[in-house]
Amino acid sequence: MGEAKCPLCGSLRFYVKDSEDEYEIHEFDLTDGKIVSQGEEGAELLRIEAETETYCSKCAWHGKLRSLQRAG
């Protein structure tokens, strides 16, 4: 399956917003459809599911995680 890329700019890095802290984000890559966390430990405990709103770290794209997992 490989790495999922942003459909607009081709970036491999994405992030989600923390539902408990609007200023906290968690960056990750998608490899073989699985989340590879970047940054702080414990981010892997963040609940990221297929319906989670996901943002590209390089451009304005955002959408559901499932759309990236299918495209990858």
Provide an overview of this structure:
- With 72 residues, the protein is mainly beta.
- It has one domain (13-71).
- It is 10% helix and 39% strand.
- The chain contains one helix and five strands; from the N terminus they run βββββα.
- It has one helix spanning 65-71; strands at residues 13-18, 21-31, 34-37, 53-56, 62-64.
- A five-stranded antiparallel sheet has the order 3-2-1-4-5, with helices on one face.
- β1 (13-18) and β2 form a beta hairpin.
- It is globular.
- It starts with 12 loop residues before the first strand and ends with a helix.
- The mean pLDDT is 83.
List keywords for this structure.
72 residues, mainly beta, five-stranded antiparallel beta sheet, 1 helix, 5 strands, 39% strand
Number of strands: 5
Radius of gyration: 11 Å
Uncertain runs are none
End-to-end separation in angstroms reads 6 Å
Strand content: 35-45%
Question: What would the average pLDDT be, to the nearest integer?
Answer: 83
The coarse silhouette is: globular
SSE order, one letter for each helix or strand: EEEEEH
User: In total, how many domains does the architecture comprise?
Assistant: 1
Count up the helices.
1
Task: Give the fraction of residues assigned to helices.
Answer: under 10%
The description of the largest β-sheet is: 5 strands, antiparallel
**Which class best fits the helix and strand makeup?**
mainly beta
The largest sheet has its strands arranged as 3-2-1-4-5
